[in-house]
Design a protein that fits this description.
The chain has 3 domains: 41-138 and 200-246 and 253-283, Aldehyde Oxidoreductase, domain 3; 292-467 and 612-773, Aldehyde Oxidoreductase, domain 4; 473-605, Aldehyde Oxidoreductase, domain 4. Helices cover 27% and strands 24% of the residues. It has 18 helices and 29 strands. Helix 9 (324-333) packs parallel to helix 10 and helix 10 runs parallel beside helix 17 (732-749).
Length: 775
C-alpha cells in the first residue's frame, strides 16, 4: 500500500520533469553531500556483524575445519560452515555450480569457507583468523590457453570447457580465395574490475513467519530471490528482498555476494545480521571482466572492401560458470564489429580455470571483441596504405546489413554518421609547456622532449537487452490518488537504481503520460513483479515500457471519465488538468480521481528473439543494436612510456535522450572505464592463482587528473520498437573507447601494442629494442 505520508513528501518536492528534459536526480543532492543511505549505512537495534573466512589457495582439498577456538571468543555468536547451509548448497546465475561455502575443495583464491557473526566487525574478523582449516594444496590451472589440452587437471569435475560458440556465415573458403590483402593479429585483454565505490553489503532481518527480509545492494532482486530461497530452504514467499542504496554496480552485483551468508546467520541467530565487505574482501566478493586472448584474420580487396573475418576468442571464466556462457556468446555475436562482413568463421571458447570467477561487466563480452576487431582494422588499413577512417567508412554497417548470425539490422545503424562527426571535429591544439598537460603530469618527468602525438578511431556495436530467445519482461504498478487536493502518481517496480538514473526516468514517464506534476517512485522490492536486471543497457527501455503501459491504461480511464462529464471527444492530459483539443483546461485531474485510487499493473515484453543454431550460429537473436564511436588524441613520451590522453571525443546514437544530462553522464562514465582498461586497470593473478593487487592502492583506476576533455555528439535516431524511440546508452561507450586510445598509441609510437592495458614498459622497452636494432 502507498502511504499518504510518502505521497505528501513526494508532492512537496515540486514538479516532476517530463520525457526529454534534463531532470535533476532526486537522490543527487543527498549523494554529493554525504546524506544518502547506502547499503553499508544500514543499521538496526540488536544487529550483529558478520564476516567471511576465505581460502588463501586457488586450488586445494579441505581435509577438515575446526571452529572451536573461534566460537570460544567473547562476543562471537555463531560460526558456520557448509554443514550449516539449511537448503541447497550450490547456486549460480546460469548454472548452480558455486558452493554457498566450500565443501570439500576450494577452486579460487578468496573462495568463502566459513562465516562468523559477532558483536562488532573487528571481533568477527579476529575470530575468523582462529578457524583452523586443514588444506591439501593442489597445482592450480591458471593458463586459459592450456586448459583444453588433454591431461590438464579439470577445474570442475565435468571438464574445463564452459561453452564453445560457433558462427559460420557465407563461404569462407571462397572468400579467402577472393581476398587480395590478408592481415592477422593476436590481441589480449586483461581482467578488469568493476571498481564500484560502494562495497558489497546487506542487512538480513528474521521475520515472525520464519522467513527473512534482506536489504541489499543488487542489480536484479528477483534473480537474487530465485537463487537465495533454495539455499535457505525456504519458499520464495518467505524471503523478501528490498533494494538498499547501491554505490555503483557495472555488472559486479548481478551474482550473489553477502545474500545467503547474512540470511543464514540471521535465521540461525534469530536476530538481525549485517554483512559489509571491506575493500580487500570486495575484490574477492564479486566477478570480474573476462580476460581474453583473441586471434583475428581480416581479408579485404585492394580497395579496402572487407571480404571475410576469421576469429578465435578464448575467455577465462575462472572457477565457476556465472554468466560466462552468455558473455562468450555476446563476444562472438560482435566479433566483426560495426561493419558489413559477408563471410565469417568465428569460434569462441569460455573455459574454467582456478582464477577468480568472471562474469558480467559493462559491455559483456563485446568490449573484448571490439578491442580485437578495431585493433586489426587499423592493422589492415596500414597494410592497405589507407586512412583508418576511410577504411571504416567504406565498410560501415547500415540499416539492412546482415550480421554474421544471419540477422538483418532492421533499426537505425548510423555508423557512418558517427564516424564522420568525429572526423569533422577540430583537433585539440598541440601540447604546451604546462606540466599537467604533458605525459607524467605533475611528476615533472618531461618538458616535451620525446613526446609524440597520435590520433586513433574506433567504433563499436552491441545488442540491447536480452538476446537468444529470452522472453524479457518488466513489471510496473502505477497508482494515481489525490493528496492535499493535488493528483500524485506513485510508481512501483523492482528496477534496480544503480546510479544510472532509472528512478528519475520512471518519474519522467509517469509525469509525461499522466500529465501530473507530482510523482513518487517507491522503493524497489520483490513485492512487485520482476523488472529484470539493471544490465544489458535494457533497464530504461524495459522499465519505461512497463511504466508507460500502466500509465496509459490509467490515462484512458481519466479521459473516459472526462469525456463522459464534458461531452468532448478530443481530450489530453497536462499540468494536472484535462485539456481540450485547443489546449484549454476542461477540468482538473483531481476532480476526476476524487477519493478513488486509480491503479494498474502492466507487464512489458519486447519482441520475440531466437536462440542461435549451435552448429552455425544463425538466428534472429537480438531486439536492437546500439552504436558508439570514439576519437582519441594522445601524447606519448616514447622514451619513458608515459601517456597523456589529451581528448576522448564520442559520438553515439541514443535513439531518444530521455534525460540528456543523465545520458551524457552515462557516456562519460563508460568512456572513463574504457580509458582505465586501455592504460591502467588490471587484476593481476600470479601463476599460483593468487590475486596480487586487491586494493585501490595497487589496482589503479583513473582519477580526475587522468580524465581528459570528453566532447560528446549525441544523435537521436528513434528506434521503431522501443518506447519513445529510445535506445540503450550505458554500455556502448565502453566498446570503442579502449581501442580508440590504443590505436592512437600505435599511431604515435609505430608499435603493435597488442595488449590492453598498456604499460609504460610496453612502450619504452619496445622503443629501446627498436632503436638498438636500428643502430
Amino acid at each position: 500500500m502507498v502511504s499518504v505520508d510518502s505521497l505528501v513528501r513526494a508532492a512537496e518536492t515540486g514538479k516532476a520533469a517530463g520525457v526529454g528534459e534534463s531532470a535533476l536526480r532526486p537522490d543527487g543532492a543527498a549523494k554529493v553531500t554525504g546524506r544518502f543511505a547506502y547499503s553499508s549505512d544500514l543499521w538496526i537495534e540488536g544487529m550483529v556483524w558478520a564476516t567471511t573466512l576465505r581460502s588463501p589457495y586457488a586450488a586445494a582439498r579441505i581435509r577438515s575445519i575446526d571452529t572451536s577456538k573461534a566460537l570460544a571468543q567473547p562476543g562471537v555468536h555463531a560460526v558456520l560452515t557448509h554443514e550449516d547451509v539449511p537448503g541447497a548448497k550450490m547456486y549460480g546465475m546460469k548454472s548452480a555450480d558455486q558452493p554457498v561455502l566450500a565443501v570439500d575443495e576450494v577452486r579460487y583464491h578468496g573462495e568463502p569457507v566459513a562465516l562468523v557473526a559477532a558483536d562488532d566487525p573487528e571481533t568477527a574478523r579476529q575470530a575468523a583468523k582462529l578457524i583452523m582449516v586443514d588444506y591439501e594444496p593442489l597445482t592450480p590451472v591458471t593458463d586459459p590457453m592450456t586448459v583444453l589440452d588433454e591431461g590438464v587437471r579439470p577445474v570442475p569435475p565435468g571438464g574445463n570447457l564452459v561453452r564453445h560458440v560457433k558462427i559460420r556465415h557465407g563461404d569462407l573458403a571462397r572468400a579467402r580465395a577472393e581476398a587480395e590483402v590478408v592481415v592477422t593479429g593476436e590481441y589480449e585483454v586483461g581482467m578488469q574490475d568493476q571498481a564500484f565505490l560502494g562495497p558489497e553489503s546487506g542487512l538480513a532481518i528474521p521475520s515472525e513467519d520464519g522467513g527473512v527480509e534482506l536489504y541489499v545492494s543488487s542489480q536484479w532482486l528477483h534473480k537474487d530471490l530465485e537463487q537465495l530461497a533454495p539455499c535457505l530452504g525456504l519458499p520464495p514467499e518467505k524471503v523478501r528482498l528490498t533494494l538498499a542504496g547501491v554505490g555503483g554496480a557495472f555488472g559486479g552485483r548481478e551474482d550473489l555476494s553477502v545474500h545467503v551468508h547474512a540470511c543464514m546467520l540471521a535465521l540461525r541467530l534469530g536476530r538481525p545480521v549485517k554483512m559489509s565487505y571491506n575493500r580487500y574482501e570486495s575484490f574477492f566478493g564479486h566477478v570480474h571482466r573476462h580476460p581474453a586472448k583473441m586471434r583475428y584474420e581480416h581479408g579485404a580487396t585492394k580497395d579496402g572492401r572487407l571480404v571475410y573475418v576469421k576469429a578465435r576468442l578464448v575467455l577465462d571464466g575462472g572457477a565457476y560458470t556465472s554468466t560466462s556462457p552468455v558473455v562468450i556468446a555476446n563476444a562472438c555475436y560482435f566479433v566483426t564489429g560495426a561493419y558489413d562482413v559477408p563471410n565469417a568463421e568465428i569460434d569462441g571458447l569460455a573455459v574454467f580455470t582456478n582464477n577468480p570467477p568472471c562474469g558480467a561487466m559493462r559491455g559483456f563480452g563485446a568490449v573484448q571483441s571490439a578491442y580485437g576487431c578495431e585493433s586489426n582494422m587499423d592493422k589492415l588499413a596500414h597494410e592497405l596504405g589507407m586512412d583508418p577512417m576511410e577504411l571504416r567508412l567504406r565498410n560501415a554497417m547500415t540499416t539492412g546489413t546482415v550480421l554474421p548470425t544471419g540477422q538483418a539490422v532492421d533499426g537505425p545503424a548510423p555508423v557512418a554518421e558517427l564516424l564522420q562527426a568525429l572526423r569533422d571535429r577540430p583537433l585539440p591544439p598541440a601540447g604546451g609547456t604546462d606540466l599537467l598537460s604533458l605525459p607524467g603530469g605533475a611528476a615533472n618527468t618531461t618538458h616535451g622532449e620525446g613526446v609524440r602525438r597520435g590520433v586513433g578511431y574506433a567504433v563499436g556495436v552491441k545488442a540491447i537487452g536480452y538476446s537468444g530467445g529470452v522472453d524479457d519482461i518488466s513489471t510496473a504498478r502505477v497508482a494515481l490518488a489525490v493528496v492535499n487536493g493535488a493528483p500524485v502518481a506513485s510508481v512501483h517496480t523492482a528496477a534496480a537504481e544503480c546510479g544510472q538514473g532509472v528512478t528519475t526516468v520512471q518519474s519522467q514517464v509517469a509525469s509525461t503520460e499522466l500529465g501530473v506534476s507530482r510523482v513518487v517512485v517507491l522503493p524497489a522490492d520483490t513485492q512487485i513483479g520482476d523488472a529484470g536486471s539493471a544490465s544489458a543497457s535494457r533497464m530504461t527501455w524495459m522499465s519505461t515500457g512497463a511504466v508507460q503501459g500502466a500509465c496509459r491504461h490509467i490515462a484512458r480511464e481519466l479521459l473516459r471519465r472526462a469525456s463522459v462529464a464534458s461531452g468532448l471527444p478530443a481530450l489530453s492530459l497536462g499540468d494536472d488538468q484535462v485539456l481540450d483539443s485547443a489546449g484549454r483546461p476542461v477540468c482538473s485531474i483531481a476532480e476526476l480521481v476524487g477519493s478513488d485510487t486509480i491503479s494498474h499493473t502492466f507487464e512489458y515484453h519486447h519482441r520475440p528473439t531466437q536462440g542461435i543454431d549451435p552448429e552455425t550460429g544463425q538466428g534472429n537473436a537480438h531486439i536492437a543494436f546500439a552504436f558508439a564511436a570514439h576519437r582519441a588524441v594522445v601524447d606519448v613520451d616514447v622514451e619513458l612510456g608515459l601517456v597523456k590522453v589529451v581528448e576522448l571525443a564520442t559520438a553515439q546514437d541514443v535513439g531518444k535522450a530521455m534525460n540528456p544530462l543523465a545520458v551524457e553522464g552515462q557516456i562519460e562514465g563508460g568512456s572513463v572505464q574504457g580509458l582505465g582498461l586501455a592504460l591502467m586497470e588490471e587484476i593481476l593473478v600470479d601463476r599460483e592463482g593468487r590475486v596480487r593487487n586487491p586494493s585501490f592502492t595497487d589496482y589503479l583506476i583513473p582519477t580526475v587528473l587522468d580524465v581528459p576533455p570528453m566532447p560528446i555528439s549525441l544523435f537521436e535516431f528513434p528506434h521503431p520498437d522501443s518506447p519513445y524511440g529510445l535506445n540503450g546508452v550505458g554500455e556502448p561507450p565502453t566498446l570503442s573507447s579502449t581501442p580508440a586510445i590504443l590505436n592512437a598509441l600505435r599511431a604515435a609510437t609505430g608499435l603493435p601494442l597488442p595488449n590492453a592495458p598498456i604499460r609504460p614498459d610496453d612502450i619504452a622497452l619496445a622503443g629501446s629494442r627498436a632503436a638498438s636494432r636500428c643502430r
